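Q: My collaborator sent me two sequences in one message, no labels, and asked for predicted structures for both. Can we handle them in order? The first one she listed is below.
A: Yes, handling them in the order given. First sequence, followed by its structure tokens:
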Amino acid sequence: VPGFIHIRLRRSALRHFKSLLDGDPEPFFTARQFAPERISAQSYVYGKIANCAIACWRGDVLASVAVEVIQSRGAFGLATVVRRVPGEAMLATARSVARHLQLSGLVGFDFVIDHITNRPQLIEINPRATQINHLPGHDGSNMFSALFAALCNQPVTSSTERMTAEEVALFPQEWQ
């Protein structure tokens, strides 16, 4: 119980003041600045880490890329080396979520590929650009070009350039 109380109160007014002293004024500008944190619990899934990122506009996925993590900083740390994969199941999940929520912009999805069923289990959705957004998709798609075209009301075209390397070292993570 004491651990639960600590988690619920971890963003107290004193912690917000410490954030300000550390040079981070953001907590003071949020609407729920002194509210207790919400707790989310989920079962542990054994398997390998994978991600996909999409560029979407009004619920339509314009471009995407999927990767499996080959190397990372620790069991749950940042990926340092990834392998591009077709990732059909991950991308189907991303398309479904984007359509349902009518998402627009760049969104990242974190998965664990279950070691028994080999099926991806959705862990987290990041409503922002992630560290793989710059990689072209297996079909040659470019997320930034596709999103720009949608914003300018232009047709989305697929790039003819394809990335030949499937394994990619991410900078600066792998360098560090």
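Q: And the one she listed second?
A: Here it is, processed independently of the first:
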Amino acid sequence: MNYALLTVVTAAEQTALTTVQAFKDEMGITTADEDVWIEAQINRMSAAICSYIDVPAATNGTRTLGRETLSERFRYSECKIVLARVPVSSIVSVTDFSAEIVDPAEYELDGATGFLWRLTTGTPNNRISWTTENTIVYQAGYLLPGQDGRDLPYDIEDAALSMMKSARASRTRDPLVKSLEVYDVESVSYWVGSTGSNSSGGLPPDIAAKLDPYRQIFV
């Protein structure tokens, strides 16, 4: 049985999945009149995306795709530990039940999946079961737009920008209008109520499709 306690050691320097300037460039906005609203929407959409792709919350209630250092405690009798946050960029330390630091040569990591295997010493390094209790300190998450070395997938930022475009458009249109047609000129319809199916978590299908590859499924 897996017992995990996920705590933040060093919080992410940034949590916004896009920048004010990126949205203004996308929309052709040249003034600062909407900057406060844009920044608030970036925070809101970033949180919504973390919720949709099931980023696990730490014990302080925070969850982010930004890179931060985390500590996670496990009680395991299996050969594979599954770390809560991905992608894992590095393992800081592994401490076993006796408070001994495990040699990095005695485990291997798949950073994309968060899988951490215990290995035997010597050659060959075979996978064996972890001891009953371990604490893993690791870095996980992405470098976000505006940070040096940004590696957040562009699909995720595009999803945030698309959600913000929709939010901005809804500020100026009648929320009760279901459809509008101008004969021989234009036909317009909007999402009404929930913006997507239940399977898409209420997101329009095109946005959900961008985010689905990054959803974390725990079994």
